[in-house]
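User: two proteins, same treatment. go.

Assistant:
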Amino acid sequence: MMGSDGAAERLLRRVPMADPAREYEELRARIDAAVRGVLASGRYVLGEVVADFERAVAGLVGVRAAIGVANGTDALRLTLVALGIGRGDEVITTPFSFVATATAILDAGATPVFADIDPSTLNLDPAAAEEAVGERTAALLPVHLFGQMADMPAFEELARREGLALIEDAAQAFGAKEEPPDGRARPAGGVGIAGCLSFYPTKSLGAAGDGGMIVTDDPALADRLRRLRDHGRGGTGARLGAGTNSRLDALQAAILATKLDRLERWTERRRAHAAAYDRALAPAVDVTPPGVREGARHIYHQYTVRAADRDALLARFDGAGVDASVFYDPPLHRLPALEGRCRVSGSLAAAERAASEVLSIPVFAHLGEAERARVSGVLSG
C-alpha cells in the first residue's frame, strides 16, 4: 500500500471517481505472480485458468455454471441469442442505464421496450414493466443499477405469470444480494434464467481491461453459451462457425481470481463510505441520498445523489477538487442513435426527472479517509 508520502500527495490531487491502480498497489505481488504464471504456461485463451475462475464465480453466485466472455455487453447479447430471442421479439428494460443494455438487445435482433423506473431506487419499476408487456414480449431485462438489485421477487412473479425469460443485467452489482428478513440471501445474477456480469476495471471486481461473464443454473443454456462464445466449439453438439469470438482471456481471469477473495472486503469499504455520505446528507434539504429497497444489499458501485440544482452541486464538487459524474443524461429513449429502434411504454416521467437530477460521487473501495472527508464536506456544505 502507498505510504504516508503517497497519502500526502493525494491530498494535493483531485479526488477521482475511481482509481483501479490502487487495487494493483494492494495486490501487486499476487497479480504479478499470476500474470507470470499465465505467460509461462503458453495458454492465453480459455484453458484451466479461466475454467477455475468460472467455477469460483459460479460458487459465489450459487449457480451451476459460469461462462467467461469478452465483456459485459457480449454477456447480454449472447444470453439473448442463446435463449432464441431475436427478430420479432421485444425485451422490456429500463431507459435509465448505460447504452449497452439497449444495444445488446438490438444486436441480438430484438427490440428494446423502455418502461419507467422507481423514483427512489432508480431501478426498473415492475408495475411499469407489467404495463409494457405485449404480444411480442419475450423477456424482462431489469438492470441492477449502481449496485442495488432490482425488485426481483416482483419480476419473478411477472415473468412466471406472463411466460417470459428473466435476465439480470448485473454488470454493476457483482456482490449485491437480496436479503429478505424471512428468507435466504440470493446474490445478483443468481435469480433469473441468467445473470450478466461485467469486469470492466472500475466495477466491484475489475479486470485490467475488458471481461465479462454469464452465470446460470441451466446446464443446457450454459452449453449453448459455451459454443456461442467460441465459434461453435466447447459444448455438446458443437458445430464450427455457429457462434462468435467472445472468450475471456486467461490473463484477465488470472488477475480477477487474485481479487476474488477481496471482493467482500472492498464491498464493505464502499458501504462504509456510503454510510458516511448518508450521515453528511442527513441535515440537507436540497440533496437526497440513494434510495435503498427493503431487503436489498446495496454495494454502491456508484453513490448517486439527487439534487434539484444539479449544476450548482456539480460546480461545488469541482471547486473542491472532487470529480463527479452524471449517469445517465439523456436517458436511453432520448439518444439519437436509438431513435426509431425502440418502443416506449408510458411517459417515462420518473426516468426523465432522474436524468436531470442525479449526480454520482467517488465511493470506490480504496478512497482514502481524507479524500472521503473532502467529499463529505461538499455534501454537508
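Protein 2:
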Amino acid sequence: MKKLFLYIFLVLLVCNAAFAGCIKGDCNNGYGTYTFANGDKYVGEWKDGKWHGLGTITAEDGEKYAGAWKDDKKHGPGTYTWVSGNKYVGEYKDGKRHGQGTFTFADGEKYVGGFKNGKYHGQGTFTYTNGSVDKGIWENGKLVESN
C-alpha cells in the first residue's frame, strides 16, 4: 500500500511539473512566458525570478490583469477584468487598488476616484444604473461627506 501511495504521489508530481514552468524566454531576468499546472499563464517581464515590470496574467477561467508588477504584486497602472464583466482601470500598490482609478460594474454602475488598500477612498463619484450619483469624500469604502 505504501508503494502504491508513493507511486501515485510521484506520478502526480511529475505530471504537475510537466504542465508548469517557464515555456518561453527568460523567466528569471528578462521577458518570458510561464504556465501553471491549473492553466493560468503569465507573460511579461521578470526580475530575480519575480514578476517585475509589465506583464499579463490570464487565469484559466478568463480573468485577466494586464499592467505593472513589482516583486510578484500588481504595482503601478493596470487593468483587471473579471469574468463577470466587472473591470478596474487604475493604480495599484502592493497588489491592491490604490491611487486613482475607475471601477465599472457589469450592470453599468461605476465608481471613479481614489482608492486606498482596495477600497474607495478620497474624492470620488459613484454612478448608479438609475442615474443617481453619490459624489464626495470616501473613507474605507463608504461615503462620509457629500458634495
